[in-house]
Amino acid sequence: MAKILIVDDNVSIQEILTEILGEEKHEVDVASSLNDAMNKTESMKPDLVFLDTNMGNEMGIHLLSRLNDADPELELKVILVKGLNEQMPKDKPAIVAVLNKPFTTEDVLKATDYSLGLDSGSRGSDSKKKEKTGLFRKHKELEQYDVPENVALSGIRFGWSYVIFEPTPNIVYQFVSKFNPDAYDILIVTSSRPKAVRVRFRYQIPEIIMLSTNPKAGSMNVRELGALMVRIKSFIEEHEKPVVVFDNITDIAEANGLSSAITFMNQVTNCSTKLTCFAFSVNPEVLTDKDRNLLIKKMEVYRN
What we know:
elongated; Rossmann fold; 14 strands; 39% helix
């Protein structure tokens, strides 16, 4: 397929775009600065460039003039990635499409197909399925489960993913309490001591994964996200109606970096095709505006 260069200083955006485009069999590379983009454009000769307007201390749009100065004959197709309220630059013929943030998987695929002159319908049912699940599986096609009254009245939908913005875990526990443990299979991923969590729920939570920077018997290393993913996937596959709750995703961000934590959230919500409800409690103060907007777009905000 096409050679595509992603020019963005946000690692989360890099990884999400890389995943979406990679699944379409495109050859993808990333650049985190304009200098890096200059070098990779020369070596890679991309068919298409995703260019963010805001590159930290640099204006992404300046890449176009720099490339033109270096090679006036260069023919480049650019998808401009910008905020919804940002103005579209004028007199930039290289820009063939615009991708407004926050975006969906379908937005990315449509902009890519249009820019490359591809038929958007050629992907068939696979691309439609991606749109239904989204990057963070906001919802899936709901199966005909009998929903206990307390969940139905709370507005929570089984099969959706929720984000809870709170400085310290509190509302997330109220979220968990909406699920009847006799009807749902609940897993709590926490950095707190398991006993403290079980006491809070009167010992009715059947399974807890404890994370630690210095793991001992009964806990997992918070930095080993791959192993954590395997454990969670196994739980989902082994239970009929799984509910997976991270009571403080901030701890994962502090141990692994914010970009890695958000990428992990994306991956874990899509680690299984089985209908699952996810919830993530996160301190909003650690998020950038880009990351917060991405979470709001791709997950349902739970406020109790």
